[in-house]
Automatic annotation (TrEMBL):
It is found in: Nucleus. Acts as component of the MCM2-7 complex (MCM complex) which is the replicative helicase essential for 'once per cell cycle' DNA replication initiation and elongation in eukaryotic cells. The active ATPase sites in the MCM2-7 ring are formed through the interaction surfaces of two neighboring subunits such that a critical structure of a conserved arginine finger motif is provided in trans relative to the ATP-binding site of the Walker A box of the adjacent subunit. The six ATPase active sites, however, are likely to contribute differentially to the complex helicase activity. PROSITE patterns: MCM_1, MCM_2. It comes from Trametes pubescens. GO terms for cellular component: DNA replication preinitiation complex; MCM complex; MCM core complex; nuclear pre-replicative complex; nuclear replication fork. Residues 1-22, 340-380 are annotated as: Disordered. GO terms for molecular function: ATP binding; ATP hydrolysis activity; single-stranded DNA binding; single-stranded DNA helicase activity. This is DNA replication licensing factor MCM4. Keywords: ATP-binding, DNA replication, DNA-binding, Helicase, Hydrolase, Nucleotide-binding, Nucleus, Phosphoprotein. InterPro entries: MCM, MCM_4, MCM_CS, MCM_dom, MCM_lid, MCM_N, MCM_OB, NA-bd_OB-fold. GO terms for biological process: DNA strand elongation involved in DNA replication; double-strand break repair via break-induced replication; mitotic DNA replication initiation; premeiotic DNA replication. Its EC number is 3.6.4.12.
Length: 818
């Protein structure tokens, strides 16, 4: 009886008769992918990939490539060079660019297999990598290469035998974390996001060590799919005792593990929706590579695991918990500014691995080789030459200020101040004095914009947030005190109390933009006192006592009381902010809506032109630096330049500070008003360093100090201006009371005491309203109700007068014997 052949596809790998192939073929379950073929193909790729393949592939895709200096350069074996570097440096990770896999003709299928079945393919690649490391080491030993002769070579090979080598693939197109579906489970995915929390290092058991309590027989059990099977009875035939196998922790093998919460970046969140978060599991050398606030590009395997209803029962929930097993991390993203290097670890950020973009956020030339170097060097050299050319322009300051928010009309001084804030000064730690390495002097510049509604304050903040390196944008009413420091929450995985970082901590090394600054509660604002001067956040909550770094520049915008700024009142009466907080801002700008018909007309024409055509003409010309180049310029200046103050600049700084202090001298009065404090001197130093940064100058020169002095003087003229005298008085910012007001209150105090003594105020007293009317009749200036109340309150506290009665019936009496 003949049975017809099945029409179903054959799911097993077809047996190819061969003498050297075993009878059994290893295949990925449920597929026709032969693991032996996969390993053979990957081996050929590592052995045969040349730079010319990538250049040809990039040209096919229409990408720019560098012209090779010689044909021999294109024939260079890329990955063999990487493997030799791994042996010399002791590195055990190889970063594998999947675009290179696609570019090499024999391995195009391998890229698809790696993306679809990473759990099976990556371990196979790890094995091939180790075999090739040994093979190349033996070849170099036979060829007598440096460091591989005789016993040295034997030691190197023995060392390679004892190491575990890993492939770290990257280079697939990134997807939004909202687009991760069940169909992506167990596949290789790439996502971008912002780190909001990282747990401490967790020990992850790899090999368990058991010992029998009866006969001391020991056995090792390896982890299998996240679980370890505990032996039920002693495996020794002589013993065989049930339930006597005990775990010995000290003899077990553990690996480092860390859980990271990755959140969508603000620019990727759809309107009106909350940002999504994804849990990442990182292992071994990827642990502690990133910290909260970093922007990451992560490649990993999308996993889903069942969740038990009760740990003591076998019943599972129908909803699975998802996370990503990370295989490759890259710091930083696209067009953002570079980070402040002084806020990063001492050795710099170095992602483990050799090859590709394994060099972290700031790849040096010696970190890049082969394909990456030939692809990136030409672009980098062109960009650096262009940036250097811009820095040599005589009008570079005006040009860059014009390029900052070009759609906003005028406001040149405000833009210059914010531009210098983006460049920043130099963070310094003085070794002498202070102990423990000395105090740290901040180089970050804080700017406050105060003004009428509709003067583009929020637009400037939004623009700065777009290009800020680790910027966090928050609003006054939408912020609580804990969101600006840290708050304690319970980790859903480990069930332990952990700290969630707030806005200033997340923007460590960047710019924190706070809008509607005046509408914050007092408890919220009080947190910023420490952040803005010491640049730390001290926490003592739920048994967690620590100090976190918040080395950030703060750019804030506020509205005056009653929306409209009143030029007749001091700045403190106009803004509902404490004087101690305002004095911590280096620059305070008043952005006012002036009454000027010509200005109205130009502003209206500018706005209408923006609606007609998106080509702003700020400053009367079209000479504007694009946003990407402006970011690159600031990044280059912050990372490469470290200007030092020259002797001439130091003398000029002293002279400018003395000039500001002398402005308070008044020959007609014995009392001197304070017009500048040491905070203004430090602000001038920071502004001068930022101006030198902008010019790509190695030293702070006279012109830098003069511009810093001009900006400081303009800011003081607006913020510390006393409307009653028309002079600068720093007392307004520090104590909310100017010299003129203090003098008025002293005169008022003497007049009140004289009036009570002369009118028999000790027995009968004087009515409140009568006293105020009598003082106003005697005075040549108007006596304010607030000043009168403050003087009476002070006299009452000193025990010189007593107020009896309520409201209109209040009587002021002199205390007898006082």
């Amino acid at each position: 009886m003949s049975i017809p052949a099945s029409s179903a596809p054959n799911l097993s790998a077809p047996a190819v008769p061969s003498d050297d192939e075993p009878d059994e073929i290893r295949a990925i379950w449920g597929t026709t992918v032969n693991l032996g073929e996969t390993m053979k193909t990957f081996r050929e790729f590592l052995r045969g990939f040349k730079i010319k393949y990538r250049i040809a592939h990039d040209r096919e895709r229409g990408l720019r490539t560098r012209v090779l200096s010689s044909p021999e350069e294109g024939e260079l074996l890329l990955y063999e060079g990487y493997l030799r570097r791994m042996r010399q440096t002791g590195e055990t990770n190889l970063n594998l660019d999947l675009v290179n896999l696609a570019a090499y003709p024999p391995s195009k299928k391998l890229q698809n297999q790696l993306v679809k079945y990473p759990q099976e393919v990556i371990p196979a690649m790890d094995q091939v990598l180790k075999d090739l490391m040994l093979e190349i080491a033996e070849e170099d030993q036979q060829a007598g290469a440096d460091g591989m002769r005789g016993e040295e070579g034997e030691e190197e090979i023995a060392e390679i035998m004892g190491k575990v080598y890993k492939i770290r693939p990257f280079g697939i197109p990134s997807v939004n974390m909202r687009d991760l579906n069940p169909s992506d489970t167990d596949k290789l995915v790439c996502i971008k996001g912002l780190v909001i929390r990282a747990t401490p290092v967790i020990p992850d058991m790899k090999v368990a060590f058991f010992r029998c309590l009866t006969c001391n027989h020991t056995v090792q059990v390896e982890i299998d799919r996240g679980k370890i099977d505990e032996p039920v009875r002693c495996p020794r035939d002589v013993c065989g005792s049930p339930g006597t196998m005990s775990l010995v922790h000290n003899r077990c093998e553990f690996a480092d593990r860390q859980i990271i919460r990755l959140q969508e970046t603000p620019d990727a969140v759809p309107d009106g929706q909350t940002p999504h978060t994804v849990s990442l599991s990182v292992y071994d050398k990827l642990v502690d590579v990133s910290k909260p606030g970093d922007r990451l590009i992560v490649t990993g395997i999308f996993r889903s695991v069942p969740v038990r209803v009760n740990p003591c029962q076998r019943m599972l929930k129908s909803l699975f918990r998802t996370f990503i097993d990370v295989v490759h991390i890259r710091l930083g993203s696209g067009d953002k500014l570079g980070l402040d290097r002084s806020t990063r670890p001492a050795g710099g950020d170095r992602i483990p691995g050799v090859g590709g973009v394994g060099g972290g956020i700031d790849m040096d030339d010696n970190e890049e080789h082969g394909t990456e170097r030939q692809r990136r060097t030409s672009k980098r050299e062109e960009l650096e030459a262009r940036l250097r050319e811009i820095s040599r322009r005589p009008d570079v300051y005006e040009f860059l200020a014009r390029s900052l928010a070009p759609s906003i009309y005028a406001m040149e001084d405000v833009k210059k101040g914010i531009l210098l804030q983006l460049f920043g000064g130099t963070n310094k730690s003085i070794a002498r004095g202070g102990g423990g390495g000395g105090p740290r002097y901040r180089g970050d510049i804080n700017v406050l914009l105060v003004g009428d509604p509709g003067t583009s304050k929020s637009q400037i903040l939004q623009y700065v947030h777009k290009i800020a390196p680790r910027g966090v944008y928050t609003s006054g009413k939408g912020s609580s005190a804990v969101s600006l420091t840290t708050y304690v929450t319970r980790d859903p995985d480990s069930k332990q109390l952990v700290l969630e970082s707030g806005a200033p901590v997340l923007s460590d090394g960047g710019v924190c933009c706070i809008d509607e600054f005046d509408k914050m509660s007092d408890a919220t604002r009080s947190v910023l006192h420490e952040v803005m001067e010491q640049q730390t956040v001290s926490i003592a909550k739920a048994g967690i006592i620590t100090t976190l770094n918040a080395r950030t520049s703060i750019l804030a915008a506020a509205n005056p009381i009653g929306s409209k700024y009143n030029p007749e009142e001091t700045i403190m009466r106009n803004i509902d902010l404490p004087p101690t907080l305002i004095s911590r801002f280096d620059l305070l700008y008043l952005v006012l809506d002036h009454v000027d018909e010509a200005l109205y007309r130009k502003l209206a024409q500018h706005l209408v032109a923006l609606y007609l055509e998106d080509a702003p003409e700020t400053g009367g010309g079209e000479d504007i630096l694009p946003l990407e180049e402006l970011s690159a310029y600031i990044t280059y200046a912050r990372s490469r330049m470290n200007p030092i103050i020259t002797e001439a600049a130091g003398d000029e700084l002293v002279r400018c500070y003395v000039t500001l202090r002398k402005a308070g001298d008044d020959p007609r009065s014995n009392e001197r008003r304070i017009t500048a404090t040491t905070r203004q001197l430090e602000s001038m130093i920071r502004l001068a360093e930022a101006h030198a940064h902008m010019r790509f100058a190695p030293q702070v020169e006279l012109a830098d100090v003069q511009e810093a002095f001009r900006l400081m003087r303009e800011a003081l003229n607006t913020s510390a201006h006393d409307p009653t005298t028309g002079e600068i008085d720093m007392g307004l910012l520090d104590t909310d009371i100017g010299r003129q007001q203090r003098k008025l209150r002293a005169d008022l105090r003497r007049a009140v005491l004289g009036m009570l003594d002369g009118a028999g105020g000790g027995t009968r007293g004087v009515r409140w309203a009568d006293a105020l009317a009598q003082l106003e009749a005697q005075s040549s200036v108007r006596v304010g109700t607030a000043d009168f109340q403050e003087v009476i309150r002070e006299l009452e506290q000193e025990g010189l007068v007593k107020v009896v009665g309520e409201r209109d019936r209040r009587m002021i009496r002199r205390v007898e014997g006082a």
